[in-house]
């Protein structure tokens, strides 16, 4: 293979959108910021969330209508030794512009779009740090609540956890191994996403698995289950449910539920059935061949959703299918359905669990964040112990 020749691309006035992927990789390599420099101007991955909030990130310059002098940002010479003055300049980033095609082969000040410090700063500021700042302010407000001492206690615990949790790690031990900053949605009043619901469902599933009286008798499925079931229902005329390989997982699950007398519990979004951004709880009870539906808004089950589940149940039983109501707390706002639906799922398994009250949602959010955070920290500690050989006999 012929060696790559930069002169075939620069500086010939080519357009960046026409550049081959392989050539873009060369550009990224030329203009990448060395790790030793990046570590001085970006936060280390394992510092705490509190430390991230206190970290002095570079401040991008405001966008101006006048084009910048490219020579201020790029050099046509290979990089020289980076001194303290250069580091200081990097802490105040200028506008980002592509210049590699014009013959610039090293970064002097600002950076082109791609895997650069500029983009890393923008991502950390907008997608990670800003939400955590909002969370910190919300937790501070809970600390100042004089009427609810329990709320202050939970908020104090969260403040401690924010000083321990690494800001740039995955949610260790959870099936949804998304970045840990997704947990920030619990600390505030934001609507909970499928990621958050799945985290709570998985905690319930682990609790069931550790209970010898319930393991093998109750199945808890993630929020994606209802979507897969809906797809199977919509394809029922063209895809044989009992033969198609793509339906095997649903078939096996159905056989477990209806063949072994198990119960199935899940939390489902209503967006596919009535265009509402709302979470509900569903239980399929084989013992009584019942479809149970729980809605914190106390609305009836959408006919299309009920049809999906009853179709699936009918593939595994010839018994008449009945309907029932799953007890839930009453929702009085537009954003607490996720917490209340998860509570209804827990109560379906552990009936003595108290109903989650609307006025205590803030405390329940704090408690759930604490449970998830401690779960993740335990997994991090286990991994570190294993790396050190402390877990071996």
TrEMBL record:
Q: Which SUPFAM superfamilies match?
A: Cysteine proteinases
Keywords of the record, alphabetical order, are:
Hydrolase, Protease
Q: Which GO terms describe its biological process?
A: proteolysis
Report which superkingdom the organism of origin falls in. Eukaryota
Q: Which residues cross the membrane?
A: none
Q: Hydrolase among the record's keywords?
A: yes
Q: Does the keyword Protease apply?
A: yes
Q: What Gene3D superfamilies does the database record attribute to this sequence?
A: Adenoviral Proteinase, Chain A
Q: Where does the record place the Ubiquitin-like protease family profile domain?
A: 170-348
Which molecular-function annotations from GO does this UniProt entry contain? cysteine-type peptidase activity; ubiquitin-like protein peptidase activity
Record-stated family: Belongs to the peptidase C48 family.
Q: What is this protein called?
A: Ubiquitin-like protease family profile domain-containing protein
Q: Which organism is it from?
A: Mycena metata
